[in-house]
């Protein structure tokens, strides 16, 4: 442990300056991927990195790698990073913090004249949000081999413009191949986007895993009939079945605490008329858990329970799992570096699981990876009201710095 600390004010000022590009009246930010505003944000980031003595590489997905040389430049770098694009009504911190924290580390090391054994890189991943070009995290996904390059470049917005065309237009269609770039370690610092740290008064989230997800679509079909003359015992009420399944989904989530999430967020009732017994209901189920075996047990409980409920009420059921994203356990050594840094800095911390997807979830497939969370006000993000505290951001950046230094010397 050393006495180097980042400059809290400089980090904050950089976040605020970046937040002016696409800044909204409510204090948020709208900087959609590969728009003119995204180009301005990228240009500013590149300018700042060059001023900090970095060399810049841009790959074919427009991912930007700002490199600070090491004593042995042939070694793979310790990398950090996140994204600069935002949701249409996004905030100033989601993603931007993880990128500018990397820059702040470089500035701090430069001031102290500190050389690291391995090189360091700060990475800006293109189009993490997936708001203009679905899906989310597509460019870190190409980097990690989850998607091929053609798939990434051909993602289109609602006007039919592709990522490839828009990268060319804004001048960020780089020449470097995507992926095949080894990292000794990768760390992503990010606001929590949930309320746990704030509720517990903790400053640092030591992120051990990212949750796996299973998404389902279920259609129950019974029989529509008049709400008056149809006797209760002879009804086949599809909404009654759905209601029982909703309750069961909640119970499955509660039975698998502390880490399970189980949600029915969308439901369509047919014919949706007040004096007709519902004949058909379509709804979705979203299950999340960091342990694949628990997620599988939740899956089994849902399937078994749904069949029983449908049979009890005499309903036909169409049941489909439409998406499975496996859990991501982060690298034990990287997690340990973060925990050790938080302890050495005397910062309150707790282990936690990321409920959202992040670029780090894909990078974990190709490099030892972990994440650092800092609190955000009331857990709100993807919202112009997203706020984070300058002290918390500085704490997170200091943890990042110490973790990076440890891995770079190891
Ligand atoms: Zn983000």
TrEMBL record:
Keywords: Hydrolase, Metal-binding, Zinc. GO terms for molecular function: hydrolase activity, acting on carbon-nitrogen (but not peptide) bonds, in linear amidines; metal ion binding. CDD domains: M20_bAS. Zn(2+) 2 binds at residues 94, 129, 382. Residues 211-304 form the Peptidase M20 dimerisation domain. It comes from the Bacteria. Signal peptide: none annotated. Zn(2+) 1 binds at residues 83, 94, 190. It holds the Pfam family Peptidase_M20. This is N-carbamoyl-L-amino-acid hydrolase. It comes from Billgrantia gudaonensis.
